[in-house]
Amino acid sequence: MPVAAQAQALACSVPDRIPVPRLEQPRRGEPVRRPPVTGYLLAMSWSPQHCAGVRDPKGARDAFQCSGEHGRFGWVLHGLWPESDDADYPQWCRPAKIVPQPVLKKHLCMTPSVQLLQHEWAKHGTCMSRHPAAYFRAAGLLFRAVRFPDMRALASRRQTAGSVRRAFAAINRGVTPAMIAVTSDRQGWLKEVRLCLGPRMKPTPCKSFQIGVRDGRALRIRPMPEPRR
């Protein structure tokens, strides 16, 4: 059965104390860009694939998401990204302070990394809002509205980027396969599904530079890990 977004964080529990993220700034050579915002991308990552590639699932960087001690994660929100009419999307629009702890804790089961939350606010959120709470509230509303296909069933048989697009479109009213972008790694493992949104944050066909891998590309899907005993 398809499930709502919040069910993708199975038994997620946030500890009383969480790390304070470091400030995020553009890397050397990464420009500030402020073109007009003409749409958005809601980028959702398949957590089992991310965790399969980390060096230390219990290390400080990935423990919350990958250790299994705070829950099992399926689909998580990478971020809500403002887009423009070409690939030079807005980014790093203003210097960003540390996201307040209550905001981080509220959204940690949605995006299970305090540093990624800080990064998304600094790189993308500052181009949309002056307040991180408002940015993550909007991202959360959109993420919780998404419904996901049965990933265990999809992982059990061969897929293509096109079949994954169709599976998502089939259970999300008003969404067509052309509105869904898919990304994979070099070995063909599914990494992300991205919903293309228009200026009013309604689903819209993806632009040519947004779509990711083409429909015919074979994909493998990392299965959800079994619960800890």
Write a structural description.
With 229 residues, the chain is an alpha+beta fold. It has helices at 47-52, 63-66, 101-107, 114-123, 132-145, 151-155, 161-171; strands at 3-4, 9-10, 39-46, 72-73, 75-83, 147-148, 159-160, 180-184, 190-197, 218-219. The chain has a four-stranded antiparallel β-sheet. Strands 1-6 form a two-stranded antiparallel ribbon. Strand 8 and strand 9 (190-197) form a beta hairpin. The two termini are 25 Å apart.
SSE blueprint:
Elements: E1 3-4, E2 9-10, E3 39-46, H1 47-52, H2 63-66, E4 72-73, E5 75-83, H3 101-107, H4 114-123, H5 132-145, E6 147-148, H6 151-155, E7 159-160, H7 161-171, E8 180-184, E9 190-197, E10 218-219
Antiparallel strand pairs: 1-6, 2-4, 3-5, 3-9, 7-10, 8-9
The ordered string of helix (H) and strand (E) elements is EEEHHEEHHHEHEHEEE
- Largest beta-sheet characterization: 4 strands, antiparallel
> Number of DSSP strands?
10
State the shape.
Answer: globular
Strand content: 15-25%
The radius of gyration is 17 Å
Q: Helicity level, as a percent range? A: 10-25%
Which structural class fits the helix and strand makeup?
A: alpha+beta
Low-confidence stretches are: none
What is the count of DSSP helices, taking H or I runs of 4+ residues? Answer: 7
Order of neighbouring strands in the sheet with most strands: 5-3-9-8
The CA-CA distance between the termini, in Å, is 25 Å
